[in-house]
Amino acid sequence: MTTFIRPFSALRPQTEHAADVIAPPYDVVSTAEARALAGDRPASFLHISRPEIDLPLGSSPYADEAYARGAMSLRKLRDTGVLVREPRPSYYVYRMTRAGRVFTGVACVASIAAYEANRVRKHELTRPDKENDRVRNIATLNAQTGPVLCAYRANDALRAMLGKCAEGTPTLEALGPNDVLHTVWCVDDAERLGRLSAALNALDALYIADGHHRAAAAARVARERRSRGADDASQYFLVVAFPHDQTQILDYNRSVRDMHGLSAGRLLARIGEAFEVEPSPAPVAPAAPETFGMYLAGTWYRLRIQSALVPRDDPVASLDVSVLQDRLLSPILGIGDPRMDPRIDFVGGVRGLAELERRVDSGAAAIAFSLHATRMEQLMAVADAGCLMPPKSTWFEPKLADGLLTHVLD
C-alpha cells in the first residue's frame, strides 16, 4: 500500500550558504526581475529555476538551452558543495516569520497516488503552457525544486510535535523576499520520525493552496516514469503543509479598463439594482464578506450585496469573487470569462488599495474593486465538494522560498 506522506532526503544548502541560495518562487518574478535579483549572486537558485537569465537577452525560457543551463547550474552547486544531500530521509519543520506573524509547517513528500485519488485536493485549473514548462523543468533536473504549499485541518497534537522539533538550533535560516524569515529544522531521529509519520498519515486530506502547476507537472512525470516500471521517489512530490489556521490569504482585487459604454451615473444606477451603494470618504477595505469597495472617478464607494441574492448553499457561487462576477462584472461591465477577457486585471492585496487608486487615477483603468479575502475554510469546502474556485480567488502570503529544500527523483 502506498504511503500517503513520508520523509525524504532533501538536497539543501549548506547552513552557511542558505542566504546565498534562497530565491523567490520562480513564478512570481519576471525574467528581467530574476536577472536583476541574481545578477551579483552566483549561488542564487534563480539560476536553476529561471535559467534563461544566464542566456543572451531575449532568449526564450522554454528553449532547450534554458532547461539544459538550469541542470548545469544545479550540478555546479552540488559539485562545489553549496548544496548537499541529507544522508537519510527526514522531515523538515519549515517556519516563516513576517511582520510578527509566525507560520509553522512541515516539509515532506506526498504520494502522487493520493493526489490522483483526490486525497491531495485541488481547487483550480492549470494552464497547459505553465504545466508543460514545469514538466520539462522536473524531467531535466531529475528533481522537484519548487514546493507545493498545502494546508491541512488544524491538529493540536501535530502542532505540539512540530513545536517541539523546532526548539533546537535550526539547520537553515535566511531572510527571503518581502522580509520573510525562513527557518528550517531537520527532523531525522527515529522516534520523532515515527510519531510524525503516524500523525501526518492520519490526516484525512491535504489541500493545495499554492502550486497547482507544480503538483500537476509532478503527476505527469510520475505517470510517465510509472509506465516505464519506475516505483521510486518520482511517485512522490514535494509539499510544505501548514495547519489551515496558519495560512494567510490576502484579498485579490480587480480593475476594469472601461465602463462598457456606461456613464458614471448610469453605472451607479445599474449597480444599485443589486447592491446598496454608499460613498466613502476613505478607501474601502471590506471588513466582512458580501461587502465590496469600488473606486470610480476619484471617489470610493462601499457596496453591499442584497442578502437574498447570495446563494449560500453553493460553496462556489456564494464566494465574494463569484458574487462580484455574477452580479456586477458580467451583467453590468460585460466581463464574460475573466480568465480570457483583456479588459480585466487582478491586483494582489499585498500591493494595497493605493495600487487600485493609481490605476484609475492614471487612466490605466476606469474602475477598481476591493474584496474581502477568501477564507481558508471556504477553499476547503470548495475542494471537498470536488469543485473549482473562480480564477484569481486567493493570494497566499507569505510565499515559500525556492532553493532551501529540493526533492531529488532517484
What do you see in this structure?
The chain has 410 residues and is α+β, with helices and mostly antiparallel strands. It folds into 2 domains: 256 residues, Conserved hypothetical protein from pyrococcus furiosus pfu- 392566-001, ParB domain; 121 residues, no CATH class. Helix content is 31%, strand content 24%. It is built from 13 helices and 21 strands. The strands form 5 sheets. Strands 1, 4, 5, 6, 8, 9, 10, 11 and 12 form a 9-stranded mixed β-sheet that branches. A 6-stranded antiparallel β-sheet has the order 15-17-16-19-14-18, with helices on both faces. Strands 2-3 form a two-stranded antiparallel ribbon. Strand 16 and strand 17 form a beta hairpin. Helix 7 runs antiparallel to helix 8. The longest helix is centred in the first third of the chain and has 16 residues. The protein is globular.
Q: Which stretches are low in confidence, meaning pLDDT under 50 for 5 or more residues running?
A: none
Reading off the top of the CATH hierarchy, the class of the largest domain is best stated as Alpha Beta
Tally of DSSP helical segments: 13
Average pLDDT: 95
Structural class: alpha+beta
Topology:
Blueprint: E1 5-6, E2 11-13, H1 18-21, H2 31-38, H3 46-49, H4 64-79, E3 83-85, E4 91-98, E5 101-111, H5 112-116, E6 120-121, H6 128-141, E7 143-144, E8 148-152, H7 156-165, E9 172-175, E10 181-187, H8 190-201, E11 206-210, H9 212-227, E12 236-243, E13 249-250, E14 252-256, H10 264-271, E15 275-280, E16 291-296, E17 299-305, H11 320-329, E18 344-348, H12 353-362, E19 367-371, H13 376-384, E20 395-396, E21 407-408
Parallel strand pairs: 6-11, 8-12
Antiparallel strand pairs: 1-5, 2-3, 4-5, 4-10, 5-12, 7-21, 8-11, 9-10, 13-20, 14-18, 14-19, 15-17, 16-17, 16-19
Helix pairs in contact: 4-6, 6-9, 7-8
